[in-house]
Amino acid sequence: MSTKGGGEQTLTVALRIRPLNEDEILQGASPIAYKVENNMVVLLDPTEDHDDILRANRSREKQFVFDCTFDGSANQEDVYEATTKELIPNVITGYNATVFAYGATGAGKTHTMVGKDDSPGIMVRALNDLFLEMEKTSEDMAYKVTMSYLEIYNEMIRDLLNPAAGILDLRENSKGDVTVAGLSEVSARSTDEVMQMLLKGNRERTQEPTAANQASSRSHAVLQVTVRQRHRVKNTLQEVRTGKLFLIDLAGSERAANTHNRGKRMVEGAHINRSLLALGNCINALSEKNGPRYINYRDSKLTRLLKDALGGNCKTVMIAHISPASLNFEESRNTLVYADRAKHIKTKVRRNVTDVAYHIAQYTNIITELREEILRLRDRLHEQGTASRQHAVANIQAVQSEVLMAKDTANRSEMNKLREQLLTCFKDQMELRRSLMEVNNNTMEVSLETNRNQLIISEWDVEKARIQQKRENTQATDNKFDEVDDDVTEPEDVRVAREELKVLHDEKHKTEKVRVTIKRELETAKEKHKKLEELIPVKVSNIDQQEIIRQMCKVHELEIENLQNIAASLMRDFEIKKKDMVITRFRHHRNLCDEIIKQQRDLIDDNNVPCPKDLDELYELYKLERQDKILKGDESNSQTPSLKFLTASGARSTFGDGRQPSSLTDLNSYDDDTKVFTRSAKLKQIEAQWKTNSYMVSDKQVIPSIKSRQSFDDKETIVSNTRNIAALAAKKRTRVQNTLLQTDKPDKPRTLYRPTNDSASDFAPNALTPSRLAKHNKDYGEGNFHFNSTPPSDDNISSVTAVEKISIHTDTSLPPLNEQQYKGGVRKISQTETEARRRRRSQQGYEGNISNQNMKKTSSKSIGKPRVSRTKLGDISASGNITQIDEGIAEVKPRREKPRRKYRSQNASDSSSVSTPQQNKNRKALPSIPSYRKGDITITGTGVNYGVNYRY
Ligand SMILES: Nc1ncnc2c1ncn2[C@@H]1O[C@H](COP(=O)(O)OP(=O)(O)OP(=O)(O)O)[C@@H](O)[C@H]1O
Question: Where is this region: Disordered (predicted)?
Answer without folding.
Answer: 745-767, 811-940
